[in-house]
Amino acid sequence: MRKIIFLLPFLLFLACSNKTAEKTANSALGIHNQIYKALESGYYDNADNYLLDLEAAFPGSIYIKEDLLMLFYAHLKNEDFQLAKFYLNQYEKRFATPQEIPWCEYQKIKIDFLSYQNSYTNEGKILNLIKECENYKLQYPNSNFLYEVNTIYMKALLTKKYLYAKIYKLYKKEGKIKAAQKYKTTLPKDSKPPVIPWYKKLFYW
């Protein structure tokens, strides 16, 4: 009986601790910590699901803003560009201040630039990237990220020229002279073509 009386406070303490730990794990902070730990361990799918749990249980949580950015950076680093852009869009729509908008729009351009990994292919994507840069320069002429956007813009223009030069040669080779004229271009002197791995060249013209 004395042993039981002696252990009773300790057992009550353990029970309260377990309830507190369980309550914390199911709180907004607890789910936020789970997202962080999942990303740190490389379990990106788990982190995505934890955010859904957080949104469902605590739609007004102060952690959602931070978690959206955290997931954006994690997926960008993992080169999962589609999801990175999704989380960035969510952050911009829901939380970005007017001062943050130029940064968000620049990040979208950077994502589209990084995701364009197959030079000499996908004319529509490179044209869209060029248009994005042009629109950005018109809308945010005083942006702190204008230099970076201009760099991407020039690289995209050069890639387009090399892509068009390839298409021009292909059409001429097939005797489609009229179609070839649309893609006739002059390559800048001392410029270098986009670098692609040798094994990818097997799938190009």
Structural summary, described in words:
- The protein is mostly helical and 205 residues long.
- The chain folds into 2 domains: 10-95, Serine Threonine Protein Phosphatase 5, Tetratricopeptide repeat (Alpha Horseshoe); 102-205, no CATH class.
- The protein is 73% helix and 0% strand.
- The chain has helices spanning 2-25, 28-40, 44-57, 63-77, 81-94, 101-115, 123-139, 146-173, 177-181, 198-201.
- α5 (81-94) packs antiparallel against α6 (101-115).
- The longest helix has 28 residues, at 146-173.
- Mean pLDDT is 85; it is low at 10-24 and 198-205.
- It comes from Caminibacter pacificus.
- Residues 1-21 form the signal peptide.
Output the helix-strand order: HHHHHHHHHH
Q: Count every helix, treating DSSP H or I runs of 4 or more residues as helices.
A: 10
What does the overall shape look like? elongated
Give me the secondary-structure category.
mainly alpha
N→C terminal distance: 88 Å
Helicity range: over 70%
SS elements, strand count:
0
Query: Biggest β-sheet, characterized?
Result: none
Radius of gyration: 26 Å
Question: Which key phrases capture this entry?
Answer:
205 residues, mainly alpha, Serine Threonine Protein Phosphatase 5, Tetratricopeptide repeat, 73% helix, elongated, disordered C terminus, BamD-like, Beta-barrel assembly machine subunit BamD, signal
